[in-house]
From TrEMBL:
GO terms for molecular function: ATP binding; histidine-tRNA ligase activity. Residues 30-390 form the Aminoacyl-transfer RNA synthetases class-II family profile domain. One of its GO terms (biological process) is histidyl-tRNA aminoacylation. Its EC number is 6.1.1.21. It is found in: Cytoplasm. L-histidine binds at D89, L90, T91, R119, Q133, D137, R311, Y315, Y316. It is an enzyme of class 6 (ligase). Coiled coil: none annotated. Homodimer. It catalyses: tRNA(His) + L-histidine + ATP = L-histidyl-tRNA(His) + AMP + diphosphate + H(+). This is Histidine--tRNA ligase. It comes from Prosthecomicrobium pneumaticum. Its main location: cytoplasm.
Amino acid sequence: MAEKSKTSAVKARLPRGLVDRPAGEIKAAERMLGVIRGVYERYGFDPVETPLIEYTDALGKFLPDQDRPNEGVFSFQDDDEQWLSLRYDLTAPLARYVAEHFDALPKPYRSYRAGWVFRNEKPGPGRFRQFMQFDADTVGAASPAADAEMCMMMADTLEALGLERGQYVIRVNNRKVLDGVMEAIGLSGEENAGRRLTVLRAIDKLDKFGPGGVAALLGAGRLDESGDFTKGAGLDPDGIDRVLNFTGWGEQGSGSGSIAGVSAVTLSNFAAAVGTSVGGAQGVAELTEIEALVAAAGYSDRVRIDPSVVRGLEYYTGPVFEAELLFETVNEKGEPARFGSVGGGGRYDGLVGRFRADPVPATGFSIGVSRLMAALANLGKLSTEDEVGPVVVTVFDRDRIADYQTMVQRLRAGGIRAELYLGGSGPKAQLKYADRRNSPCVIIQGSDERDRGVVQIKDLALGKALAATIEDNATWREARPAQFEVPVDGLVEAVRSLLGGRP
């Protein structure tokens, strides 16, 4: 058979907006998820898993228009012409799950889940089409105490992961208060739903674009550095000023001027901002209760009211919250920067009710796993480097594979991670392979060692350290650094001792 032409080979390439994950990153993520899972379970939450694919109509009107099912979500039709979509987040699938199993579930229903979500959006720096979220939700509790608990649990999660107080803040606002402001600037009513969402998403970009960029998004629109134009909400100058003043960035409420948008606007200012809006007043009352609850529990230094928090999705109906990291780092250009938000959520009382005749209150929090991992790695709280690899049993005599396999099985039975070299290379290449696998040591047995009933154990890590201090070959050969022999029957104990003595 003719050899395949190299020019006809398929080009190996990764689609834009997606990433491959090496072993070190996967293991680091699992360690981090284990810590988060531990905190969630300590609060009484149990796991649940929903599929990656849902019926498109189950994702709801809050996501892209049903007339354009591929706008924002990845969608396709199955064989009976039903539209299906890759999940956009983990909240809409949970709402479907709760509605479908409503009578069998305890209420309130407390659950957590981790998984991949997908966005059919233009990829860019830090903007991916696939990323992982880790959510916790309480369904069936209308009290602001459920929202306060979410904020406190997020604070405990960040500290369990190694962050210190002062390195983060949980910021809280209320969409009812924001709706009251919308009413005050003439954007109430169903006919203005699209413009309200544009305003909310503009406010959500304060930490990224600053007041000038947000003002443009509130007005005619904004042209970014790549030349792409984002259409704005079309507010007049007075409306733009009122929104910015409410967030604490306008002339009447400049707040602290920090990127975090921590505003000097207090709950009494909120009451003035919503005017005669009944919903707005209810939002202020809910925030007042949340503030009292977190103060009573001793979380006031980590959870605080902030008018610039809005969250981008329209299905939020009450309190909204965001976890923001406050410490500075350096971006790819060498400039000071902050990681910003690593998670957020809020109350979504209408989402489960879409599937039922009666309303169902719900609130939840979602962690951006990749972003939080990057922040923890930057602080030295999480290593994504490859861990110590398996012990490698080398093959010096090809006709003795069974003997070498027996050694591997003895090591595994002794609780030691081990593998048999299965390639076709010689001894020198096998040692290089073990080195690339980050193996702590290799097991060597040639015919001479077999006849004497021993094996050679080469400590690769110690060998590297000694090699750095030995300069001439004669000394190297005389020292035979980090290599020793033991009886075959003592292999497991010798390797266990070597691994146990490593710092």
